[in-house]
Amino acid sequence: MAAPSGAASCEDFAEFQELLRVMRTIDDRIVHELNTTIPTASFVGKVDPGQTCKELYESLMNAHTNRERIIKNCISQTSAVVKTLKEEREKAPEDAVLLKQLRKEQTKLKLMQSELNVEEVVNDRSWKVLSHK
């Protein structure tokens, strides 16, 4: 089950969240994947469960790595924007539009940082399911 690994748009948080939602499909369907991966008695000779499990494991590892890379990349980009806006704000402390933009970017940064925590929970859940099957 391949997940998109394209470049994330870090400017639009809703788009960023949608990309992560789509990329987390493999984790959401891990039980189904395991149930369809492990052959029943009648298919034991036709399917190599060890190889199939290895492929599922590698897919899961790749998905986790790609999502973490995307999240950290967006955090880095948004942090740079926040830093720039803070510097501009110091030069123009009365600029209300600049302050509003800074607050918006700071909020987006906090939301992106919280996605790292969500990612940790999603990953842990998937590994627990995989290790118990």
From TrEMBL:
Specify the superkingdom.
Eukaryota
- Quote the protein name from its UniProt record: Protein MIX23
> Which Pfam families has this protein been placed in?
MIX23
Q: Which family does it belong to?
A: Belongs to the MIX23 family.
PANTHER family xrefs: COILED-COIL DOMAIN-CONTAINING PROTEIN 58, PROTEIN MIX23
- Assigned GO CC terms: mitochondrial intermembrane space
